[in-house]
């Protein structure tokens, strides 16, 4: 088909071309961002778009309480404009050391480039007993795994937006537009998950660690037991025997783990109780195709539905 171009529309096309060339030549800021976990890096990409370059420290398959820092990550933090952490002691074993080694005042605690997503988040399971804070408990300030709460997307995105506006105020319009678009996507996703949870309410699970605490609460799942006696404390043989004993009259439950905790105690419990093991994404990047925060939540919920509706 031949389209006859009138003089007017040719002018219009030329104008559009020139405008787009002009826009393309405006250098976009390159805000260097280091995020502690890939979930936060994904949200930084959503809000920051082309103005940011983000790297995540933890890998999606790792236990977020125990992350080994590579020298290249210290260099990245040293050069970063923005550092984004979950907080609530989630990364307590490795973030303070990383920030000290990086010696970047701007992204140190209290610096304008430091974003603590735990700020303003109401954690579940905050210990009433202050002595727990001194023990070997990895959740001394309550459950810090709120990245696994389907409700937490808007909170994390807003914290990130605030941080970006502090370090790159010239990008305000751009960031706010991205934030608005992402907020709509989060809203659509939340409605989908709320609908899906109707299929899961009242189903029973056993977990290894309590990282899925917010998710199981959201879905209305009943947690029959925890393989770790305390967060971060591996089970003793006697704890495992007691757990097996307590489950002997239970039917139709599954054992939920993440990649890092899918270990021999989980396999032992599965063998002794005949309950299947369901490995859920612990974070973005924990398995092929788990590339975004919204997508990772979809995979978790779909996997639980597939496993529990079978039981
Ligand atoms: Zn934990």
What characteristics describe this protein?
alpha/beta; four-stranded parallel β-sheet; Rossmann fold; 311 residues; binds zinc ion; 41% helix
* Strand neighbour order, sheet with most strands: 2-1-3-4
- Number of distinct helices: 10
Query: What low-confidence regions span 5 or more consecutive residues with pLDDT below 50?
Result: 1-6
Bound molecules: zinc ion
Task: Report the major sheet.
Answer: 4 strands, parallel
Question: What is the CATH superfamily of the largest domain?
Answer: Nitrogenase molybdenum iron protein domain
Q: What is the C-alpha radius of gyration, as a whole number of Å?
A: 23 Å
CATH architecture of the largest domain: 3-Layer(aba) Sandwich
Strand content: 5-15%
Broad structural category: alpha/beta
Mean pLDDT score: 92
Order of helices and strands: HEHEHEHEHHEHEHEHEH
Q: Count the domains.
A: 2
The end-to-end span amounts to 59 Å
Total count of strands = 8
Determine the fraction of residues in helical runs and give it as a percent range.
40-55%
What's a concise summary of this model?
The chain has 10 helices and 8 strands.
Task: Give your account of this protein's structure.
The protein is an alpha/beta fold. Helix content is 41%, strand content 11%. It has ten helices and eight strands. The protein has helices at residues 7-25, 38-48, 71-78, 95-102, 153-167, 172-196, 213-219, 237-246, 264-273, 293-308, and strands spanning 31-35, 52-56, 82-85, 114-116, 204-207, 222-226, 253-257, 277-279. It has a four-stranded parallel β-sheet, covered by helices on one side. It has a four-stranded parallel β-sheet with strand order 6-5-7-8, sandwiched between helices. The relative contact order is 0.12. Residues 1-6 have low confidence and may be disordered. Bound molecules: zinc ion. Residues 65, 138-139, 145, 209, 211, 231 line the site of zinc ion.
